[in-house]
Amino acid sequence: MNKETILTGIRSNDTPHLGNYLGAIQPMIQSAIKYSKTHCINMFVPDLHSFTTPTEYDSLFDRTLQNIKLYVACGLPIEHENVNIYRQSYVPAHSEMAWILGCFTGFGEANRMVEFKDKSSQLGDDRVSVGLFNYPILMASDILLYDAKWIPVGEDQRQHLELTRTLAQRLNNQFGEIFTVPNDTKSQQKFIDRDSSLRIMSLKHPDKKMSKSINDPAGTILLNDIPSDAAKKVMAATTDSVGVINLDWENQPGISNLLCISALLSEKPIEEVAKAMTGKTNYGELKSIVAGQVEEFLTNLQTKMKNLDDSKILGHLEAGEKSMNIIANKKLLQIQKAIGLRK
Ligand code: TYM
Predict the structure, then answer these.
(1) Pocket test for ligand 1, best of 6, 114, 156, 202 (most atoms within 8 A of CB)
(2) Domain boundaries 5-193+310-338, CATH class
(3) Mean of the per-residue pLDDT values for the chain?
């Protein structure tokens, strides 16, 4: 029987932040540890997606290597035969599949992607590339090439996952069962033991998500921040004037965000963490707890990263790319035949 695939990717154009970690890396690695005997685990670096912001070789290479080291430092068992790490652009089938999928995607459908609307409104028409517009189609290709069923991602990628499901269903209806349709959002959440899709908010602007693309250094905890500086950012987090701690995203988003971060870093249910703090009037106490957790988490992570051997990681990366090319080319040929590009 074919193994089910769990897959996710983190772009490498900037240093990942705590939102990336809690939204995607943490659940992916927890799943990898839990399921590496029974599932394929594909954790890759979408370097073509990173390239929607043009870069240069040395910096992209370095950041890509840092991302893979981050996966390993967070616990990805790369020695396991079912665990695959790779760079998207080293498996050229991703781009070709994206082109094919693009031909089955409506312009209006792609134009409805909220992420695209958000990013393009920040950039202005002249600086918005077609690459950015095509971003979710390439993402669908990343997923469908490997028949991945489980895709741990944060809330902002939910719509892209829905588009992936739609495209898989559309092509299957037209050409027969070629693609595995990824599971729906509800099942995805259940798979990673979460009640809802996760959106970690900015510490400074708790109405906005923590993000690489907005200039918000005080609101964003980068995974390479000096741990004591990160703790200071938590201590300076924006809260509210209610004066009593409650888990209430609507009226107390800053406090709720801190409770959420605390729960995920301590791997406890948010209800339990919220219950212990509810009704307290000292916001400083909550901030100190979270600041300590963040500082400890970053210290451990950064120590582990320093001790990793680059050449060993690069060896795994190249081996992963070799085997992923075989799998991806097989799927690509299947669709090329179905749509009439190959006999
Ligand atoms: P990227 O690098 O922008 O984001 C990586 C992951 O981090 C999640 N994330 C968050 N989660 C919670 N709170 C936040 N504030 C927050 N900010 C970001 C994102 O949802 C994402 O899961 N398009 C993907 C990369 C990708 C991919 C794929 C993922 C390319 N192809 C195929 C899965 C499958 C992205 O957003 O990268």
Answers:
(1) 156
(2) alpha beta
(3) 95
